[in-house]
């Protein structure tokens, strides 16, 4: 990352692109127009400026297990993503009647139900889903130790699904003895999916409000209620929030290649986001009536994925105060403001645009002395998908750097049209 001094930018800060008619002009979209047509008689000016003084890619730092869905993917030599689901409270007894609580000695009709998110799924043919016993005392953050448990002797169950089976949920039958052996203890299941060619799909996690369910009967008497367990984690014992997140999580055995350090990288696995700090002319930030504001980005191609891949990028406003000097931390303190999203193919290149008028509108409610004017670019599937978008930074050639195109009027409003 690099700071550009105000003096170095002074000569080329503002370049007037042209004048247009008043609010009768035709705009492509209204997403970026919070003050649209507030002055029917005012002249609208459009300028393109180079206001970015700092831009850099940082880790999304959302924490292991905080993703809304877990990625199961096998894409050749580029991606191997699995999932771990914890059931740390397998009951030792079950309720047969108010006065009878026998030990779980027989398990029948056991199955693991997974809710499927098919958005962005790649299902070219039959998919083999395997469930492994991945109980271990190794730290969950030690990926290699957990991945090493996906061995034939730990295989619990497997099932082949046709692409048509992936609708809203799938079920994997679990052998009863695998549950009986863990009664009164914990059962942690590792999931792996493989198929012919590149495959991927996502499983909703507990953070999405509906994680996996482990269903089984502990009694052959069908009048006895079955046992239904959701993901749960008893560790770490003194940090409930982290324990909840670790109830289920993505195990990234191998991720896509990282983007160039000098590029602005959004998305990918592990997830990245972009922090951008701006220095805009005071009359635009404080007094001008903004008709439209567009962030201009030049995309760098990433051809490590597949041509059909896409990623959606949106701009959040940074709420981090000036006292937050750690950029990585500041990039996590954000609020969603824009209705616009930028959809790109990672392999594409060239000029891309994202409407950000709502961000500027929020800047007006902030003191620039207390809260730096900054936005954060994030992927809409952050931490859930391997795709990433790459853009040129302010360290690139002038014609490739991020810019801001603003249409505005300095005439005072005389009321709603």
Q: Major sheet: size, sense and barrel closure?
A: 11 strands, antiparallel
The N- to C-terminal Cα distance equals 45 Å
Beta content: 35-45%
Helix content: under 10%
The total of helices stands at 7
Low-confidence stretches: 1-41, 413-417
Radius of gyration: 26 Å
- Based on Cα principal axes, name the global outline: elongated
Q: What kind of oligomer do you see?
A: single chain
Q: How does the helix and strand content classify structurally?
A: mainly beta
Number of distinct beta strands: 24
Determine the mean pLDDT.
85
Structure, explained:
The chain has helices spanning 6-10, 143-147, 176-180, 240-245, 282-287, 327-330, 357-363, and strands at residues 14-20, 44-49, 52-59, 69-75, 79-87, 108-122, 127-133, 155-161, 169-173, 187-195, 199-204, 213-217, 227-229, 248-254, 264-267, 272-278, 289-300, 311-318, 334-336, 342-344, 350-355, 374-379, 388-391, 403-409. By secondary structure, the protein is mainly beta. It is elongated.
């Amino acid at each position: 990352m690099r700071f550009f001094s105000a003096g170095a930018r002074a000569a080329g800060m503002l370049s007037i692109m042209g004048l247009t008619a008043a609010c009768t002009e035709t705009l492509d979209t209204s997403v970026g127009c919070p003050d649209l047509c507030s002055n029917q008689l005012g002249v609208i000016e459009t300028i393109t400026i180079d206001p970015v003084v700092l831009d850099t890619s940082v880790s999304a730092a959302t924490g292991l297990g905080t993703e809304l869905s877990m990625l199961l993917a096998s894409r050749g030599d580029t991606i191997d993503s699995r999932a771990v689901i914890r059931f740390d409270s397998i009951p030792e007894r079950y309720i047969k009647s108010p006065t009878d609580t026998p030990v779980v000695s027989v398990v029948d009709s056991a199955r693991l139900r997974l809710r499927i998110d098919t958005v962005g799924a790649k299902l070219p043919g039959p998919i083999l889903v395997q469930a492994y016993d991945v109980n271990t005392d190794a730290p969950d953050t030690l990926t290699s130790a957990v991945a090493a448990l996906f061995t034939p002797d730990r295989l619990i169950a497997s099932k082949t699904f046709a692409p048509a089976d992936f609708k809203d949920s799938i079920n994997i039958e679990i052998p009863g003895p695998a549950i009986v052996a863990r009664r009164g203890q914990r059962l942690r299941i590792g999931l792996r999916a493989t198929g012919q060619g590149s495959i991927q799909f996502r499983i909703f996690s507990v953070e999405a409000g509906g994680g996996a369910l482990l269903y089984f009967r502990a009694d052959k008497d069908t009048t006895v209620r079955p046992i239904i367990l959701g993901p749960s984690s008893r560790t770490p014992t003194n940090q409930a929030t982290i324990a909840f997140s670790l109830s289920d999580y993505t195990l990234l055995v191998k991720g896509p290649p990282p983007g160039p350090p000098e590029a602005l990288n959004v998305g990918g696995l592990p997830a990245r986001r972009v922090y951008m700090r701006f220095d805009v002319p005071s009359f635009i930030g404080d007094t001008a009536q903004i008709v439209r504001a567009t962030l201009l980005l030049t995309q760098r191609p990433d051809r490590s994925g597949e041509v059909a891949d896409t990623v959606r990028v949106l701009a959040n406003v940074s709420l981090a105060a000036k006292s937050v000097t750690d950029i990585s931390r500041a990039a996590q303190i954000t609020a969603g403001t824009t209705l616009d999203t930028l959809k790109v193919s990672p392999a594409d290149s060239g000029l891309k645009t994202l409407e950000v008028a709502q961000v500027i509108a929020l800047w007006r409610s902030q003191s620039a002395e207390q809260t730096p004017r900054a936005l954060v670019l994030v992927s809409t599937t952050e931490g859930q998908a391997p795709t990433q978008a790459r853009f040129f930074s302010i360290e690139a050639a002038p014609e490739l750097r991020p810019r801001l195109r603003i249409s505005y009027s300095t005439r005072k409003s005389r009321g709603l049209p």
